[in-house]
């Protein structure tokens, strides 16, 4: 296996393993939160998170993603550490200033939309987290540029561990969702400390900032910021609307289903987070390798996402009742709709990265703005009338519009750049698996059915050629000694 492939796979293993641990903790605890708070209180808690999440990008404006790419490119230069230190210093202080402004903006917006006093207080308290993320996010971006995703993944494990332990204690003490907000502040603080000292260990130093360079930084990062802001709106705006125009209960039903979707994005996040810094570097040093790596990566992402969407569509009622009890039965239809956003989210994240690596981030910004504009306009018209069903449908449609734009642009750039090669075989394997799962849904319990579905999917995929020796060799070459000259 060549060095870039081994680096990506190593980072994927660390990132994936860490996110598995994170998601196990988070998933179990989120189920407890949803059950403990009930639909109304959970709806209020979701609204608080959505308000802050919608405007959180103003505390970053794309600076983190930009700095990760730049640090990855600085590494091979003789004065790379010095350049990285200068960039880190200015990103850090710039983000702190932006975070302070964002806290004031978010709290003012909550007041102007006439949220209840308790919700405004919760939003103000939760927005303090942006100050912590200003330091932690700047440090994590540098670590990403140095491809130390093992450290950033470890910090997230620490973050989730602190949140679960502190949150469980504060819930037990009767602090409600204010206790959860406090626990989250403590958790991010622990992650901040770990990332801060890890950056110090790399030899980077925080010097005196040069505010006169911030406008230049903003000019380079703003396409990333537009993307982040638009994505934040498309992912959180529907929750804000549901809370304003519908009810706390309906907000809770929708977010109970939505939380499951974001728990399943683990595979895409781990893989793409590992790909980004490495491919940013080899796009300069060995660009001829990119096409084959892109094609293989996209195929793997579809291989992971499609069977999940098929399986959960069939078993949504059993999943909701098993996880949340019958009180959350209205979440079933939302889950059956929302689960189909998963393959499009996997695709959009990956395709967006490929365009950013080609220094065409303005194209990504344009595509995200168009899809988010459609999301906002249609949600404003439909959510007040049709509630969380409309929000669910528009979430899927928004991601479809985004993926369609990415594919159109990439095909115009390179007509031979075909990402969807082999997808029909993957769809066929997922459909066959779905038939097996459907036939067993009333005969065996949920866990057994999921296990049978997973095994049958891998067997069918092997028989149909979706997976084969290339995939096995990819894994074997990482773990076993390789012969000189062996490539992935």
Q: Percentage of helical residues? A: over 70%
> What is the H-and-E element order?
HHHHHHHHHHHHHHHHH
Question: Major sheet, described briefly?
Answer: none
Q: How many E-type strands? A: 0
Oligomer, anyone? single chain
Quickly count the domains: 1
- End-to-end distance, in Å? 4 Å
Count of discrete alpha- or pi-helical segments spanning 4 or more residues: 17
Uncertain stretches: 477-488
What does the radius of gyration come to? 22 Å
Proportion of residues in extended strands: under 5%
- Structural class of the secondary elements? mainly alpha
Averaged pLDDT, please? 80
Structure report:
The chain is an all-alpha fold and 488 residues long. It has one domain. The protein is built from 17 helices and no strands. The chain has helices at 3-55, 63-74, 80-112, 117-127, 129-145, 149-172, 176-201, 214-245, 248-264, 266-285, 290-324, 331-338, 342-357, 361-413, 423-440, 446-464, 469-479. Helix 1 packs parallel to helix 6 (149-172), helix 1 (3-55) runs antiparallel to helix 9 (248-264) and helix 11 packs antiparallel against helix 12. The longest helix is centred in the first third of the chain and has 53 residues, at 3-55. The radius of gyration is 22 Å and the shape is globular.
